[in-house]
From TrEMBL:
<comment type="similarity">
    <text>Belongs to the acyl-CoA dehydrogenase family.</text>
</comment>
<dbReference type="InterPro" id="IPR046373">
    <property type="entry name" value="Acyl-CoA_Oxase/DH_mid-dom_sf"/>
</dbReference>
<dbReference type="Pfam" id="PF02771">
    <property type="entry name" value="Acyl-CoA_dh_N"/>
</dbReference>
<feature type="domain" description="Acyl-CoA oxidase/dehydrogenase middle">
    <location>
        <begin position="122"/>
        <end position="218"/>
    </location>
</feature>
<dbReference type="InterPro" id="IPR006089">
    <property type="entry name" value="Acyl-CoA_DH_CS"/>
</dbReference>
<dbReference type="GO" id="GO:0003995">
    <property type="term" value="F:acyl-CoA dehydrogenase activity"/>
</dbReference>
<keyword id="KW-0274">FAD</keyword>
<dbReference type="InterPro" id="IPR009075">
    <property type="entry name" value="AcylCo_DH/oxidase_C"/>
</dbReference>
<feature type="domain" description="Acyl-CoA dehydrogenase/oxidase C-terminal">
    <location>
        <begin position="231"/>
        <end position="378"/>
    </location>
</feature>
<dbReference type="InterPro" id="IPR009100">
    <property type="entry name" value="AcylCoA_DH/oxidase_NM_dom_sf"/>
</dbReference>
<dbReference type="InterPro" id="IPR036250">
    <property type="entry name" value="AcylCo_DH-like_C"/>
</dbReference>
<keyword id="KW-0560">Oxidoreductase</keyword>
<feature type="domain" description="Acyl-CoA dehydrogenase/oxidase N-terminal">
    <location>
        <begin position="6"/>
        <end position="118"/>
    </location>
</feature>
<keyword id="KW-0285">Flavoprotein</keyword>
<dbReference type="Pfam" id="PF00441">
    <property type="entry name" value="Acyl-CoA_dh_1"/>
</dbReference>
<dbReference type="InterPro" id="IPR013786">
    <property type="entry name" value="AcylCoA_DH/ox_N"/>
</dbReference>
<protein>
    <submittedName>
        <fullName>Acyl-CoA dehydrogenase</fullName>
    </submittedName>
</protein>
């Protein structure tokens, strides 16, 4: 096995790291305090081609692989968890379903502007009464002539306030067993009947844009259905598998930031006449953090590699998302502990890492759901 990054992957890592250090990290505290989406940062990211890393050049992308994309998510998330979340959602949830399942016409119309970073797209799956139980979707789409009429509500949708389109799931009929058929539809956000409210007050990842979407008699052309009308649910399970790789990469970035802050503080902070990094109790915390972060990163790379080579990766993406997100939360918590009273203060930033990490144990399937996915993959 070769664990070295390729020349291209190393170049992406260095470029994104430099960009994040210069453009994102200096404003991360401000973005968190103001709960502000850094639109200007995303325009620059689009200009660098970061929003199109995993898509072919023919669709405006960079032609990179999933490993390269995961590296970019980690570096951006290391600078700001909220910005990293919006970046991951823009690519994995906004653009990827169109790339995976869209017609050539849909890719030309919708994917190219996304890959070029000219706009964003959102993914509308979660509802007030349908989260992990996506089969309980209550949004409905009824075919009337050559149009679908969509009614329903979506909640906690990342980037919706800055997106030109949102792909929504809706019940479009019943199968021969009487179960709901869930289809996916590309809905331009300026369509009459679409209302987007971005009023959530969040605990963490406050630099990401999070909105509720109300759909009232929203009419979209029949050709806006995405992929197989009968397989919308399976399509989004595949999309979520890929999205979990990006959330895991984001978690590694947040954890790495927490670790680096804690290590630097431990070397500077003196108690009893010496740096606290000399104390075994602190050394053990740092050693555990470093070990878990490296293991999580390797799991992210493995899941990404499997996806790139068209091998099954459902189990491995769940492994990565579960372990990395819980690693990030532990790292944030330990970083606060190492900082002591200083860690409780916002200016030291480690408390933000903990708040950001918590969402990663919930979004894209909770830790409990990941364990269910893994158990099913094991044949339980």
């Amino acid at each position: 096995m070769n664990f070295e990054l390729s020349k291209e992957q190393q170049m992406i890592k260095e470029m994104v790291s430099e960009f994040a250090e210069k453009e994102i990290k200096p404003i991360a505290i401000q973005l968190d305090e103001e709960s502000r989406f850094a639109e200007e940062v995303f325009k620059k990211m689009g200009g660098l081609g970061l929003l199109g890393i995993p898509f072919p050049e023919k669709y405006g992308g960079s032609g990179g692989d999933t490993v390269s994309y995961a590296i970019a998510v980690e570096e951006i998330g290391k600078a700001c968890g909220g910005t990293g979340l919006s970046y991951a959602a823009a690519v994995s949830l906004g653009a990827s379903p169109i790339y995976y399942f869209g017609t050539e016409e849909q890719k030309q119309k919708y994917l190219i502007p996304l890959a070029k970073g000219e706009t964003l797209a959102a993914f509308g799956l979660t509802e007030p009464n349908a989260g992990s139980d996506a089969g309980g979707t209550q949004t409905h789409a009824v075919l009337e002539g050559n149009e679908y009429v969509i009614n329903g509500e979506k909640c906690w949708i990342t980037n919706a306030g800055y997106s030109r389109t949102v792909t929504v799931t809706a019940v479009s009929g019943k199968d021969n067993r009487g179960k709901n058929i869930i289809s996916a539809f590309i809905v331009p956000t300026d369509t009459p009947g679409v209302t987007i409210n971005c009023n959530y007050e969040k605990m963490g990842v406050r630099a990401s844009n999070t909105c509720a979407i109300i759909l009232e008699d929203v009419r979209v052309p029949r050709e806006n259905i995405l992929g197989d009308p009968q397989k919308g649910f399976k399509q989004f399970l595949y999309t979520l598998d890929g999205g979990r790789i990006s959330i895991a990469a984001l978690a590694v970035g947040v954890a790495q930031a927490a670790f680096e802050r804690a290590l630097a503080f431990a070397k500077e902070r003196k108690q009893f006449g010496q740096p606290i990094s000399n104390f075994q109790a602190i050394q053990f915390k740092l050693a555990d953090m470093a070990m878990e972060i490296e293991l999580a990163r390797n799991m992210v790379y493995k899941a990404a590699w499997l996806k790139d080579h068209n091998k099954p990766f459902t189990k491995e993406s769940a492994y990565a998302k579960l372990f990395a997100s819980e690693t990030a939360f532990r790292a944030g918590n330990q970083a606060i502990q190492i900082h002591g009273g200083s860690g409780y203060m916002r200016e030291y930033e480690v408390e933000r890492y903990l708040r950001d990490a918590k969402l990663l144990e919930i979004g894209e399937g909770t830790s409990e759901i990941q364990r269910i996915v893994i158990a099913r993959q094991l044949g339980c």
